[in-house]
Amino acid sequence: MSRAVSLVDLILHELRTPLTVAIGSLRQVGDLADPTRQAAVARALRSCERLEQMASQMRDWTRLEDAPAEPGSVPLAPALAEAVRAASATRAAPIIVTGGDHQDAMVRALPHLLADALASLLLAVARASDPGETITLEVSLADQSARLVARRSEAATRNGTETFEAEWLGGLGFSLPLARAVIAAGGGEVTSGHAPDGRLESISVRLAVAARTSR
User: Fold this and answer.
1) Using an 8 Å Cβ cutoff, are 76 and 211 in contact?
2) Shortest CA distance to 124 belongs to which of 41, 38, 191?
């Protein structure tokens, strides 16, 4: 383990206890506070929970960069379903999945991180959308790859031509660089499509197909 990873682990270990105490205390206070103060307590609680999530993402990303894990064969459909559920719950709006039969597809990926990575990418598109817009997730399979395209309903239909570096920032913490690292670990790639003003319109993910099973 590198010195960088050791330092990150030490920092996260020191953060874990005060964060746990703060989150537990805010949850208790939230039930007791009067209505005018409950909103402030709820905001503070969400911020602490977000910090806890970012700490976990930092740990996963640093360890992945330091000692890349070996990808395995992961069923695509369950990972996609879990990602859509997580993103839809956070956005409080449905994400429509379209495309061909991918129920039996197996992709090369990190089993414990793929669903979270896909959810982060879906949320990035949702976050760029306007009120009332829907997000479609088109899934298509080729002999050697699975392609997932998440697109805002008002976005132009075109392929992403940029790297994903422009989407690292914007209040989403470490979730997007971690997602890109997770996809790359399985031999895949992430690209993004943007409007002329730079606004995110779509994200495309290519995953290497490991195998297909028959029903």
Assistant:
1) no
2) 191
